[in-house]
Amino acid sequence: MTALVWLRNDLRLHDNPALHAAAELRQGVIAVYVHCDAYVTRFPIAPSRLDFARRHLHLLTTELARHHIALQVLRVAQVSEIAPALARLARDHGISHCFFNAEYPLDELNRDQQVNQLLRAQGVTVKRCHDRVVIPPGKVRNEAGTPYKVFTPYKRKWLQLASLLPLRPVEAPAHQAALPCPSASAQDIDHLFEGQELRDLSTPWPAGEAVARARLQRFVAQDLDHYQTQRDLPAVAGTSGLSPYLAIGALSPRQALAAVLSRTGGDWNANAGVSTWISELIWREFYQHLVVDYPQVCMHRAMQVHTEAFPWRQAPEDFALWRQGRTGIPIIDAAMRQLNATGWMHNRLRMLVAMFLTKNLQIDWRWGERYFMEQLIDGDFAANNGGWQWSASTGTDAAPYFRIFNPITQSQRFDPRGQFIRLWVPELAGLSDKAIHAPHLAPSGPPPGYPAPMVDLGASRKATIALFASLGQAPAGGSDAADDIPAAPGTGAGPGPHHPG
Ligand SMILES: Cc1cc2nc3c(=O)[nH]c(=O)nc-3n(C[C@H](O)[C@H](O)[C@H](O)COP(=O)(O)OP(=O)(O)OC[C@H]3O[C@@H](n4cnc5c(N)ncnc54)[C@H](O)[C@@H]3O)c2cc1C
């Protein structure tokens, strides 16, 4: 009898609960990775993220083999073929147990349910572990036993619960006596992705859990203490850059948290950098929990039902200018060009470009959500959907619709010398630090080749506020006069308390 572990977005050996549990049976372990073509066509996924998975699998097959765990890879065309393919594998290899780490979006839950049923019907014991989050969904509840809709009380409760947990990452899997079957070769792995668009971004994003752990250690040792003051400055590498590794599961949130707590001797509030970074990990967790508690978000639905009536504009030409970074608003263009070139975008800029698309161009957040997933190497359904719905004021804990970032004042505040803009919009490099944020306002106007703003920021902001107000159920509090989200007390630059970044 052999144990099977089905790997998905958990491509690592260390602190992998499903892999660990399978190895603990000490009866031989086969790991399997299934590539489904329909997933790639039905759900947007960036070619860089596909290639990131391919590169991780290359490393993983060798690492697993060192532990005498064989990696098998399967390619299927349709989602409905996944369960039968795994059932066949289980039959062929005398599998007694199958372990996998939970994935929470609705389609993944349905897929796993099919696998569960088919394997159980054939006598296999199936175990689902929780790995993607520190606290499993359904556990962070308010007094009434219902899910939180607002981040701050969720975070308070989450911290209470997490402080009671051991939070020790599980060990790497035990070495097995012998390889139960040959491991996938490099060609087998490459064959999984044949015919699909791949994009090699290995220079900015080298693969492997060793790289992820080293980046984590470096961030915690060098940058964590300054995180609070640096994290909003896109020209500075002040954030961890760990999102691609967390998204593909080369790193776990427990490992991230454990590294911080080990540095601080268990102090969750050692300084503002520490508590703010932990807060970001909790935002990540909040969004993962939301897709379970509010599964309608997995069906292209707005979290706040009344906002479904917002008359989003069908404006493909404007959408194309946004995608290409040719809006005439330098910080927006720099951000979109960073995304297109590197498969990643700074968090502050994700919020800015998302608000610009939805609030100034009044283009449906779902268009932006999809484009992000098509480009991001860290594409993660829950975080992306949560971020888009937050920015569009359609989501839970949404930014009140009347608070709309002004990209020019944001640019002056967070890229004061225009370094980030100069890097990504070289046609503006010659402008002064003052002019670079709004070249159309400079006496000489924008340099040749750079467009004038595609939209009037003030007028579009007013129009959007009026449209949201007409939807009826405006959030209580706030005022029409509010613009940027206010700074957090004491920071002078940070966001307000309900702000994911
Ligand atoms: C519109 C929009 C779309 C987004 N799409 C994604 C996505 O597809 N995948 C993704 O991982 N993040 C997404 N985010 C969240 C955030 O922008 C990125 O996680 C962050 O920029 C990653 O950089 P970092 O690893 O240096 O983060 P750090 O600042 O170092 O934060 C540490 C980790 O916390 C998590 N995190 C940080 N901020 C957030 C947040 N606001 N929401 C959820 N998790 C967070 C990430 O896993 C991140 O790696 C999105 C945000 C917005 C506004």
UniProtKB/TrEMBL annotation:
Broad class of enzyme this protein falls into: lyase
Signal peptide range: none
Bound cofactor: record note: Binds 1 FAD per subunit.
GO biological process assignments: photoreactive repair; response to light stimulus
Assigned keywords, A-Z: Chromophore, FAD, Flavoprotein, Lyase
Any Pfam family hit: DNA_photolyase
The keyword Glycoprotein appears for this protein: no
GO molecular function list: deoxyribodipyrimidine photo-lyase activity; DNA binding; FAD binding
SUPFAM superfamilies: Cryptochrome/photolyase FAD-binding domain, Cryptochrome/photolyase, N-terminal domain
Amino-acid positions noted as binding FAD in the UniProt annotation, renumbered to this chain: 227, 239-243, 277, 280-287, 378-380
Low complexity bias (residue ranges): 475-490
UniProt cofactor(s): FAD; (6R)-5,10-methylene-5,6,7,8-tetrahydrofolate
Photolyase/cryptochrome alpha/beta domain boundaries: 1-134
InterPro entries: Crypto/Photolyase_FAD-like_sf, Crypto/Photolyase_N_sf, Cryptochr/Photolyase_FAD-bd, Cryptochrome/DNA_photolyase_1, DNA_photolyase_1_CS_C, DNA_photolyase_N, Rossmann-like_a/b/a_fold
Catalysis performed (reactions): cyclobutadipyrimidine (in DNA) = 2 pyrimidine residues (in DNA)
Site (Electron transfer via tryptophanyl radical) location in chain: 312, 365, 388
Highest taxon of source: Bacteria
Family: Belongs to the DNA photolyase family.
Listed name of the protein: Deoxyribodipyrimidine photo-lyase
